[in-house]
Each structure stands twice: as structure tokens, then as C-alpha cells.
């Protein structure tokens, strides 16, 4: 028997969630979830997040088709961060790169561009 | 020629940083950095973070010896999250697990315990 782990949402009711490719282990993005976004993710098996700037729940890939199939959700020791182990359709980044982490801090591009954003977003 | 990427620290001057094992790709922890913590990380090659609860800069492994050798720092597309690619001494988690993400959201333990915290922390 297991029980849901207690989660420590922050003062704004957000938790950071890291999306990692379940196959090759690439870290693809970091975004935030609310309880509702997490609930929707678990119900549908598709990654949902909460946009702090737009102040709305969103499903990853709703516009682009680049959805994330969530295979497992992990919680860290303090319950204040999540790890989504996912299967990524297309690329995770709105710039067309597979991962949002496609630059080093020195500005070198190290990732792979997998689609042309002009073809995907209006 | 490359130039440092612009970083979008939040209102509290924090950025989340994900530590990923550079060898096997395991996501080991998520913590926060300030500019100072990031600067110290780049100067020393050892991961430094900022504890929001203790309100202080800390070097990972300062007490336990489980330091993180930072091989590369990546920045996400929006400049509001970091990825530390690291070599981890011992385990990353204060509970003795290799990764802080050693539980599923259902409460199942899926990680590996690599040390006994009683031997390491007073």
C-alpha cells in the first residue's frame, strides 16, 4: 500500500516541475504546476502546467501538438519539486529545440533543433 | 565568441537550478541559486545554492562531503531556470538516497540509498 506523498506548494500555490525524457534522460524543460494542473496531468496522462505570466492552466503541446506523455511522476525529499518522466512528441521548446536547456551559460548552443517554430506557431 | 546568457532572476532574486548527473543523466535535486551562489559555483567548480529557509548561501556537500563537481551550466530558453551537469560524490539527498527524487507521487520508493545519513550528519 502506498499513499500520495505530501506536497509543499509555495505561497503562490506553485511547485516547480522538471520534465525529463523517460527514454534518454534529457532534461527538457522546467515549468510550474498548481494542484489543478497536477490533477489534470494525472487524469489525462498528458503534462499540464500553470503559466505564472498568463495566469492560466495549460496543456503542453495544446497549440504545437508537441504533447508530453507522462509515464511517472516523482516527488523530491521535501515535497517541493516534481519530476515528470515523459515521452516527448516533437520538441519541448517553443524555439524548436528538443530541450529548453539548449544553451550553456556562456551562450553556446549545444542542443538540437527538431522543428521550425514558424511552421508550428502562428 | 559567446557571451553570458541573460538570466531572469525572480522577484526574490532566486533562480531554480536542477542538478543532473553528467554521466548517467539522473536528476538528483532541485534547489535555488542567487547571483552570488551562481558566481561561487562558477569560480570554484563546486555547486553552490541558496537556502531560502535558512537564508544563506551553501555549498552542496560542505557538511556531508557529498560535493557536486559542475561540468557545465545550461540555461533554459527564458533564462529563468538553470541546469547543472555534475559529477556527484556519494549521494545528493540528505536522506542517504542518491537522488532527492526517490519517490513516486504515490509514495513508492524507487531510488537507491547510497549512505546512512546517521553516519554523515550529526
Structural write-up:
2 copies of one chain form a homodimer. Chain A has 122 residues and is mainly β. The first copy, chain A, has a single domain, classed as Phosphoribosyl-AMP cyclohydrolase (Ubiquitin-like (UB roll), Roll), CATH 3.10.20. Chain A has 2 helices and 7 strands, in the order ββαβββββα. In chain A, the strands form 2 sheets. A 4-stranded mixed beta sheet of chain A has the order 2-1-6-5, with helices on one face. In chain A, β1 and β2 form a beta hairpin. The radius of gyration of chain A is 15 Å and the shape is globular. The N and C termini of chain A lie far apart (48 Å). Chains A and B meet through β1, β2, β5 and β7 of A and β1, β2, β5 and β7 of B. β5 of chain A pairs antiparallel with β7 of chain B.
